[in-house]
């Protein structure tokens, strides 16, 4: 029987082919067998590292192996991620830290080390790119892969290549991943969420419509809580109900989103895996130890975050035209303000000054638990920050910023500070932010 015969699967632990319908591997005895009628005809994959930040910390500190671990920023922050032991106890990503500790008081809380996580993420990414040039990153720890046409290169069908990849990540990097395999990105992403951690799920063409019919509408990409509530009011709770509605009717009710509902509810997704997928924004934010209301307390934080955003823009060779300010009140309500510039910028000074103008309108006595600043409408930095004929001091500030950057490159980030942040305490030097 050939390797890609539809009637046989393989063992995910030893990769031995399984020609008999047994419950355990005939070679190593493992129960982790993978069988599917379309197993060897599918090539679009989604890879997701399991509880990535927590997994890296457990790898580096084996004493944490059997303990609940939360990655986050102290009692006032939010959960960035949590290991599966903590999740069993009710901890979820983006949950306020005080609620997470109420749910799992025995958890070990670790402050995020983004530099380390980025380094490990790049190692995983490099292993993906060794499989195919068509790798589309989604975040630091997940990506889509198109393995079409790679069977001759690897001597194995995509399904086996993915299983070998997952095994190699565990052995060489020390963390685990979950994989989803299908014929389109939408269903590959859904498949990777099943049976985590160390999952490998397959959704084929023949089963797609029937499988989706039983799922909630929230499984469709783009259907969040607010839109799900709208669909609920219209009596639409499952994808199967959407499948019964004509395209024109869905578009009449929900506009362009109705068109997406029509196609995705039927498992139709024409989006290609694009290795040139670009970031839409660059931002930095921090959660305070205590709520802040005074301008004098918020401005140093805004300046420090603006410098972080600027540094990332400069390293990436990009610039942004729209500056976005984000605030979260003490009752967890989010305020977002934005302002478009005449030209793209990558300068901390312009980002800060623009953010300061927006912040001044929000310092009305409201107490804030979070502050963030970022830029969107990204482009390359070739046309960024042209000479300002009106503001004659702008060029001097830009030159001064360049000098500061040079000193920081040579002596470290804290070698030079502006008057906005010098001596202003911890809030003026927030830890590396998680949102990027």
TrEMBL record:
The active site is at 142. It is found in: Cytoplasm. Keywords: Cytoplasm, DNA damage, DNA repair, DNA replication, DNA-binding, DNA-directed DNA polymerase, Magnesium, Metal-binding, Mutator protein, Nucleotidyltransferase, Transferase. Pfam families: IMS, IMS_C. It comes from the Bacteria. Its cofactor is Mg(2+). It is an enzyme of class 2 (transferase). The gene is dinB. Poorly processive, error-prone DNA polymerase involved in untargeted mutagenesis. Copies undamaged DNA at stalled replication forks, which arise in vivo from mismatched or misaligned primer ends. These misaligned primers can be extended by PolIV. Exhibits no 3'-5' exonuclease (proofreading) activity. May be involved in translesional synthesis, in conjunction with the beta clamp from PolIII. GO terms for cellular component: cytosol. Its EC number is 2.7.7.7. InterPro entries: DNA/RNA_pol_sf, DNA_pol_Y-fam_lit_finger_sf, DNA_pol_Y-fam_little_finger, DNA_polymerase-Y, DNApol_IV, Rev_trsase/Diguanyl_cyclase, UmuC. Residues 44-224 form the UmuC domain. GO terms for biological process: DNA repair; DNA-templated DNA replication; error-prone translesion synthesis; SOS response. Belongs to the DNA polymerase type-Y family. It comes from Oryzicola mucosus. Binds 2 magnesium ions per subunit. It catalyses: DNA(n) + a 2'-deoxyribonucleoside 5'-triphosphate = DNA(n+1) + diphosphate. Monomer. This is DNA polymerase IV. The keyword NAD does not apply. The keyword Cytoplasm applies. Mg(2+) binds at residues 48, 141. Gene3D superfamilies: 3.30.70.270, 3.40.1170.60, 5' to 3' exonuclease, C-terminal subdomain, DNA polymerase, Y-family, little finger domain.
């Amino acid at each position: 029987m050939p390797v890609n015969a539809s009637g046989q699967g393989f063992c995910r632990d030893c990769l031995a082919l399984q020609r008999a319908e047994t419950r355990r591997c005939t070679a190593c005895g493992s129960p982790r067998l993978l069988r599917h009628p379309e197993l060897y005809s599918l090539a679009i994959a989604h890879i997701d590292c399991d509880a990535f930040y927590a997994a890296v910390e457990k790898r580096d500190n084996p004493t944490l192996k059997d303990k609940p671990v939360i990655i986050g920023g102290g009692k006032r922050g939010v959960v960035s991620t949590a290991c599966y032991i903590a999740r069993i106890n009710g901890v979820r990503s983006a949950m306020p830290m005080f609620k997470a500790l109420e749910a799992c008081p025995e958890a070990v809380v670790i402050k995020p080390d983004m530099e380390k996580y980025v380094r490990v993420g790049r190692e995983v990414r490099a292993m993906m790119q060794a499989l195919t040039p068509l790798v589309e990153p989604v975040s630091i720890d997940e990506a889509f892969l198109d393995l079409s046409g790679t069977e001759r290169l690897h001597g194995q069908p995509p399904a086996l290549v993915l299983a070998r990849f997952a095994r190699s990540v565990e052995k060489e990097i020390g963390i685990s991943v979950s994989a989803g395999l299908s014929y389109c990105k939408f269903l590959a992403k859904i498949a990777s969420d099943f049976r985590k951690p160390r999952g490998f799920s397959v959704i084929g063409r023949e089963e797609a419509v029937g499988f989706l019919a039983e799922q909630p509408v929230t499984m469709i990409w783009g259907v969040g809580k607010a839109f799900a509530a709208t669909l609920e009011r219209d009596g639409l709770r499952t994808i199967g109900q959407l499948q019964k509605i004509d395209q024109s009717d869905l578009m009449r009710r929900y506009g362009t989103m109705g068109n997406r509902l029509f196609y995705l509810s039927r498992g139709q997704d024409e989006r290609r895996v694009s290795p040139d997928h670009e970031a839409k924004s660059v931002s930095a934010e921090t959660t305070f130890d205590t709520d802040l209301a005074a301008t004098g307390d918020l401005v140093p934080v805004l300046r420090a975050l603006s410098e972080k955003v600027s540094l990332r823009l400069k390293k990436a060779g990009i610039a942004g035209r729209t500056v976005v300010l984000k605030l979260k009140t003490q009752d967890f309500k989010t305020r977002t303000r934005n302002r478009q510039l005449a030209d793209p910028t990558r300068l901390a000074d312009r980002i800060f000054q623009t953010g300061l103008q927006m912040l001044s309108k929000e310092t009305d006595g409201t107490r804030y638990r979070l502050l963030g600043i970022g830029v969107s409408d990204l482009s390359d930095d070739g046309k960024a920050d042209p000479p300002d004929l009106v503001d004659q001091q702008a060029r001097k500030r830009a030159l001064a910023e360049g000098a500061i950057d040079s000193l920081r490159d040579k002596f470290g980030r804290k070698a030079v500070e502006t008057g906005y942040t010098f001596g202003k305490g911890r809030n003026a030097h927030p830890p590396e932010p998680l949102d990027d």
